[in-house]
């Protein structure tokens, strides 16, 4: 149970503070419309991730060899996590002010997240592998924790943006992102190792 909780917490927080389309949009909404608008935009994963997870589970249920499928997903997920971690490690500075767009709505945030490949890559690889190999309770804990941590980190970014925007471009933010990148890389390696173990079981 602890593995599912802490891994989901790490994934959610890392995805939450990583610069990306939704994060930039949350900050834009906060600056142009105020904190409530930024918080509303942060809730987009509640709308987008549910259907993505259901599709992932439907596809998983149509595979006869769950262990072999889980092995493939773990391998792809591990590689994806290492790729994301490498991108986070390469960030040298964060400038958000130049990326702000015109104001929009929660509906736009949902559309933005639906076209973002990140959630699909995660739930069809790393997230999916955790769901199919865990018990019902462990899978539920993983899903709730991952989405909850993602939303909480986006809300935190909105709060910081509303009061201390320079802090988002500070050394402290970069250090926090590097730490989470290292954690993500660690889980990526574990996922690749687990893929080998599941492939042996499938044989």
**Overall pLDDT level:** 80
The main β sheet shows up as: none
User: How many extended strands?
Assistant: 0
Please mark out the parts with pLDDT under 50 across 5 or more consecutive residues, or reply none.
Answer: none
Radius of gyration: 17 Å
Tell me the helix content.
over 70%
Number of domains: 1
Helix and strand element order: HHHHHHHHHH
Q: Could you say which overall geometry the principal axes of the C-alpha atoms support?
A: globular
Q: What is the end-to-end distance?
A: 27 Å
Total number of helices: 10
Strand content: under 5%
Structural class: mainly alpha
Layout: helices, strands, pairs:
Layout: H1 2-17, H2 21-33, H3 35-42, H4 44-61, H5 66-90, H6 106-114, H7 117-124, H8 126-133, H9 136-164, H10 171-202
Helix pairs in contact: 1-9, 1-10, 2-3, 2-9, 3-6, 3-9, 4-6, 4-7, 5-8, 5-10, 7-8, 8-9
Quick recap of the structure?
The protein has 203 residues and is mainly α.
Written account of the structure:
By secondary structure, the protein is an all-alpha fold. The chain has one domain. The protein is 82% helix and 0% strand. It has 10 helices and no strands.
